[in-house]
Amino acid sequence: MQRISDKRKPMTPLDLVESSIEEGLADPTIDYLDDLPDDVEMSLFDHLEELRQRIFYSLIALVVGAVGCFLFVKPLVKLLEAPARGIKFLQLAPGEFFFVSLKVAGYSGLLVAIPVILYQIIQFILPGLTRRERRLILPVVAGSTLLFLAGLVFAYLLLIPAAVNFFMNYGEDVVEQLWSIDRYFEFVLLLLLSTGLAFQVPVIQILLGLLGIVSAKQMLSGWRYVLLGSAVLGAVLTPSTDPITQTLLAGAVVGLYFGGIAMVALLGNSQGWGRLIGAISSPFTKVNKTTVTDAIAQAPSDTVTEPATIEVLEETPTVDEENTQNGVSDLADLSQIEVENQTSQVEDTDIENQTQVDEPEKETTQLEATETTTENQLTSEASLPPPPVEEQAVPEMLPQRFLSKVTGALFTLLDLWCEDRGEVAIKRAINIKRTGGDWTEVPDLCYVSYERLPAGWMEDQACPTAPELVIDMISPKQTFGELVDKATEYLEAGVLRVWLVDCQARSITVFYSDARPRTYRGEMELTDPLFEGLELIPELLFRQARLPNAG
């Protein structure tokens, strides 16, 4: 089979959502953009103009703050002189105290204007953030502000008095303590600012941890370099050369660093953050993620909600399509026999002593038994045939039963099609490469051709390359935005097609690397030139999987 590749840039998540709404594939009354950036089309000059305005407003706030602080500069000067008790300050040049007053007013005005400056920065970057990322802004800004203020207090109460006492005691019996007011305030203001910045270390650590770039274990493993770096940081940030000030600042940085490690470990190990990272599949998360299907299977049944349904137009089959359906129906009958045999073997066969076999149904059982995720295995309860569904209400069934039936039917159909073409696997781990870090994903089904697989690849190992096709089952608790994020991650990693199967809506949504997504349901025929010879009709698939009708 000739390999088909496409190097064109994948569509963004927002493009996928907008195109789905335009084509009638999604309900415009539902807010699908909770996890997507609120993109606004702006030219480069529009961005530059907005940036100019934000900078202008920030400068106005800085000037107003500096002028306001200059009106009360003498109380501020006395406050900063307080740590140097017993020292007489001299004005060694005309206008020296005036320029010191301007400097104090400028630094104080910057501190007062920080809320406005932060607001302008947030407003500039906000349109490019998802709503989930926006929810991180408030805790990050609040934590950063509190730590900066804590750094100022730490410097004022500990660092400045320690440095002043060291210099006073060092030359007390030799020289008279007469200090230049300009040099003293330069020392104090720089020490306050540098300490406030150094106290931002935990915020940076928590952000790196939540984004999955660095784990708590990796942070802890580099503690030796942190000790060395904190010593260098203390020497660079402190304007004085005394060892006491440098040691105090370095010790504070080390303490904050280990405190940040504890926070990252706490957030990473808690169930709430663990489920969040595993469920939303953030594009920046560098972890072996638990799929949302597994999380739903473990959740209580009363927490399952109805999924968002993608509305599409039904197509009336033509004569040619009816002939095609007959061919697919034959495959469906074969698939049903395979699934029933597979179910029987799962119940009666000792998995641990199972030997290698060639039949498709036995291969399916072996693949399911060897995977670490056991939620999708068929149980004895799932093997019972469902009751007739004609003119009956839909029985209450666990989502896992739906997923298992359709997964088995799709596997059998793809396995019959891809003979001598490639490998089809259930719950096969695949290594996904991306900018910012690689990660391992476990889709419900995947197909990879022999052309993509390396020669030395072993079947019991994770797939080392992006497959041509990834199939995921939509569970009732997932949102459309989460699914679009996940599909886009696959496409950006080199996957050519992503199928999202909705058992409740009895539909299959196909995401392409070079075109808008399309949803197939009913008697619509799903064909793709990438998979030559593969024909699928969603309704026949769900019927042969014995899923009950929705009404």
UniProtKB/TrEMBL annotation:
Domain Putative restriction endonuclease: 399-536
One Gene Ontology term of the molecular function aspect: proton motive force dependent protein transmembrane transporter activity
Alphabetical list of Gene3D superfamilies matching this protein: tt1808, chain A
Key words of the record: Cell membrane, Membrane, Protein transport, Translocation, Transmembrane, Transmembrane helix, Transport
Protein transport recorded as keyword: yes
Recorded GO CC terms: TAT protein transport complex
Transmembrane segments: 55-77, 97-119, 140-167, 187-211, 223-241, 247-267
GO BP field: intracellular protein transmembrane transport; protein transport by the Tat complex
Localization of this protein: Cell membrane; Membrane
PROSITE patterns: TATC
Extent of Polar residues compositional bias: 341-357
Primary site of residence: membrane
Membrane topology recorded in Swiss-Prot or TrEMBL: Multi-pass membrane protein
InterPro entries: Nuclease_put_TT1808 (IPR012296), Restrct_endonuc-II-like (IPR011335), Sec-indep_translocase_CS (IPR019820), TatC (IPR002033), Uma2 (IPR008538)
Region listing for Disordered, in residue ranges: 315-334, 341-391
Comp. bias regions, Low complexity: 366-381
Superkingdom, taxonomy of origin: Bacteria
Entry function: Part of the twin-arginine translocation (Tat) system that transports large folded proteins containing a characteristic twin-arginine motif in their signal peptide across membranes.
Subunit architecture: Forms a complex with TatA.
Sequence similarity: Belongs to the TatC family.
Protein name per its UniProtKB record: Sec-independent protein translocase protein TatC
Protein species of origin: Microseira wollei NIES-4236
Name of encoding gene: tatC
